[in-house]
User: Fold this.
Amino acid sequence: MTALRPSCAPVDLTWLLTRAARRMRAELDTAAREHELAGIRDWVVLTALTRSEGRTQLQLGRDLGVDRTTLTLLVDRLEGDGLVVRRHDLRDRRVRIPHITDAGRDRQARVARTCEAAEARLLSGFTAQERQALRSLLLRLAEWPEEPGEAGR
Assistant:
């Protein structure tokens, strides 16, 4: 069954981006759950911690666009599963800094492979050039510089 397009013409970009994000998130939530995470947001937190440690929870939340309460719940769950530990900031004992554990790194890597396969399935109808163009355009729209090696993905 084909979903109905909005009645406005031309098709609204915000609607398309929202729908595409919803579809991608549903696939990636499934991929994350295959590895005993609650959903893709858990994996996003683990990925952020593998790329840059030492950020406070507040900084991490800002970087990920997640409010403080939601991030606390995510980190609580990840800590309860042994994937993250919180340590006090040496400069301010009131501040806690989440760190990924070895088990968290392992889980993040396994989920990454599953997510890559899910993404490949979702984009299988696109040529390699179209996938590269989509990624480049979205990076520009998000005002996020391309990282070395990402343009060809």
